[in-house]
Specification:
4% strand; three-stranded antiparallel β-sheet; 12 helices; globular; mainly alpha; 57% helix
């Protein structure tokens, strides 16, 4: 709606719209508008709409709001992306995570496993083939192909990496290749994690925050501090990698 408005009413103006203001430093005197952080009223309104769509239980609303208020006070729950993820997690666990690393971890568990168990008769995929690849380790490895800023990854590179990583899990290489193709099809249609990019035969993480979470997990696996520093040094100030890696180390 915003793009359509400016395209029609101000076609010669240059507008930058970003969901990530971290590290945003304008080089000229320009006007900047920010969306206000979520309020309790915004969250209630969102939940009421979800209840109206029968995607959230009315009796869970009060408990969700009590937990959400704690996250609002921490300035953690301040946008609709986080809210939509938290609603999915709450439906599965009845408890909200307290920080970003737990948010991404619980989101992955829900998307990769819990939701598929709930809807196993509807997914249309051979879960026996897909399940062995729906692991943290898979997406941590895929993140190493997307550095530094969630770049597009060739399908062939994805397939070669996963074949090296998982061929011993299957009876032979042909079965492993079939499972990998089905896994990528599954990711495309059933997850909000790793999806086709706008370029043919390329993939990327759906949201940069998920890419940074899994790459932070990769950095955290390093036993050498100098190597951790080297891996972090390719990122700029707009990245969450620093915050997430430190949080993982503290945990």
């Amino acid at each position: 709606k915003i793009i359509a408005f400016f395209s029609t009413c101000n076609p010669h103006n240059k507008i930058c719209i970003t969901s990530r203001d971290r590290g945003f430093l304008p080089k000229a005197e320009i006007e900047v508008f920010e969306i206000y952080p979520l309020t309790s009223m915004d969250i209630e309104d969102y939940l009421d709409k979800m209840i109206g769509l029968k995607k959230f239980k009315k009796e869970d609303k009060q408990c969700f709001m009590e937990q959400a208020q704690i996250l609002i006070d921490k300035n953690f729950l301040n946008n609709f992306l986080a809210l939509s993820l938290l609603v999915s997690i709450y439906k599965s666990e009845k408890k909200l995570p307290e920080n970003k690393t737990n948010l991404y971890k619980k989101c992955f568990e829900y998307i990769a496993k819990d939701r598929e168990i709930e809807e196993k008769d509807e997914i249309g995929f051979d879960w026996e083939n897909v399940a062995p690849l729906m692991k943290d380790s898979t997406f941590i490895s895929l993140a190493t192909l997307g550095v530094p800023n969630n770049k597009d990854i060739d399908r062939k590179d994805v397939e070669n990496l996963l074949l090296r990583q998982y061929k011993i899990r299957y009876l032979d290489e042909v079965k492993a290749e079939c499972a990998i193709r089905e896994f990528l099809e599954f990711c495309t249609n059933r997850t909000e994690l790793f999806v086709p990019s706008s370029v043919d035969d390329k993939f990327k993480f759906f949201h940069r925050s998920f890419f940074e979470y899994f790459y932070s997990r990769y950095i955290h696996q390093c036993s050498d501090v100098e190597e951790m520093y080297r891996l972090m040094s390719i990122f700029d100030v707009d990245s969450e990698v620093f915050e997430l890696t430190v949080a993982l180390v503290k945990e």
